[in-house]
Amino acid sequence: MAVLKVLEIMSNSDKSWEDATSKGIKKASESVKNIRSAFVQSQSVTVKDGQVDEYRVTLKVSFEVN
Question: Which residues form the signal peptide (predicted)?
Answer without folding.
Answer: none
